Amino acid sequence: MNWRGRLQFALLIIPASVVVLGPILWALSTSLKPNDRIFAVPPRLIPDAPTLTHYARLIAEGVHWSFFNSALYAVTSVVAAVSIGAVAGYALVRFPVRFKPLVLVLFMAALAVPSYALLLPTQIIFVQLGLFDTRLALPILYATHIIPFAVWMTRAHFASVPIELEHAALVDGYSRAEAVWKVILPGAMPAIIAASTFGFLYSWNDYITATTMVDSPARRTLPVALIFFQGFHGRDWGALMAGVIIATLPPVTLFLIFRRHLIGGFSEGSVKG
Amino acid sequence: MAAISSGSTSQTDLTIKGTQAGLQRVGTLLVGPAILLVIAVNVLPAFVGFYSSLRRIFFFTDEGFVGLDNFVAIFSEASTYATIARSFVFTFGSLALAVPLALLVALAVRQLGRRGRLFLTMLLVPWAMSPIVVALLWKWILLPSPGGLLASTFIALGWSPVALLTDPSAAMPTIIVVGVWRNFAFAAIILTAGLGQIPNDLYKAAAVDGHSVWERFRRITLPLLAPSLLIVLCVLTISYFNEVQVIIGLTTGGPINATTTLAYQLYQTGFVELDQGRGNAIAVVMFLINLLLVIAYVRLLGGSKGDGK
User: What does pTM read for this prediction?
Assistant: First the structure.
């Protein structure tokens, strides 16, 4: 890259990184400052006496249990959604399915309808069924919200694996299931990773479903626990920013690791329609 | 669509292993769980929502059928119209900021090549964060007293701090900016993919013909990007129109209802006041507005594709 290209890149990336990463770094900085330095004027980005007391305080308040709840709900939802969704995606490509066009419309419509629009009747139904405020409530909802994405992303990849490969495996004496496991699944791995990463971000980052479907402190997710913490200790910004950091690390780390698959999944999906 | 056609060729190929009817049974069995879950969690509540909007339901107690009373009550209140107007201000204000930004980013990403991917990845970091956590973070930055990054910087410069979230005229623009900060880069993914579909030869030909950069953008990029723009407009409109978490986290609808949109009103009426009949009526109104907006976009942009311009 020549100097003009470099200059162009620098002129773009420097202001953009200040706007995008600045607020997150500020939260990290606040979370590491002792209470008597947090309100300093002028503000200092690098804490001069870094401390982990705010993180310790979150643990003392039991917020880590909500972290584990969030992780448990997210992982359960992703595993369920991606296995159910990928099997459906495979069947829609390789098998005759009754009312196939209607089924595809159903999944597309489920993609388009925001889950928030259906939350109030869902709460009424869950209360009637006795699912409200149980450990099943959130995994059921999250998994089902992720399934259409998993179907949509894996279907295109299964379609792109040549049927001849599958036949060759069958001729070699593999069973259908073995053929899928050894030949087809590796080919669809990028889509499975994309759907899993998106599913994790979706479940981990949700607040509104979690706050309306679960009531007991013991079953709370991390975002809900942070909002409750804010309600009780509104001015404890050090601890709140420590909460922001621990709530942000898992999804952002996963996003950075699997960014190619995730961005690829959405760009392919939008181009192919 | 390619997937469907390849699916039907494979049916004939695989009939060696079983009869057509048997295969269909297996296929339906494999798709079944996904279909059942989606129907139970998406379709069923939609019906329950419509049904509940015609009943008086308080605190999970159904007091019976009331016809359109909930809707009449909503639309006989003057504040409802202001709430709907604020929903549009929030939605279109966010779109007006997010779409041009996303388009600029998409153009830059293509221009930068390999480094463009790095640029896009960085811009997507806030999108990977939780909306309510983003709200909490910005509430701290915008705190109008020492400690808040903005206020502390202003004080250090000798200016007086501004209260963006508690000023009735500044609150709405502020939550729009925070909402856009979080997710505009997602639109850039789709637009970047759309730009990648435009053949480079078209630009070369236009350059030979002596068209300016702006003309090339207007005559080639914009019309050929219409399908991607349509997706972006639909996805972002639905996302902003139904945004509630950023509002709960930043302003809880205040100050003096300045940020109470329909989505927030639904939260307040249905989940906080537990007036569930009326809450569902609001949800039905929101659903209809969503639908109308999407239809309008498809008419507007989907139609222009056929003109061949």
Answer: 0.91
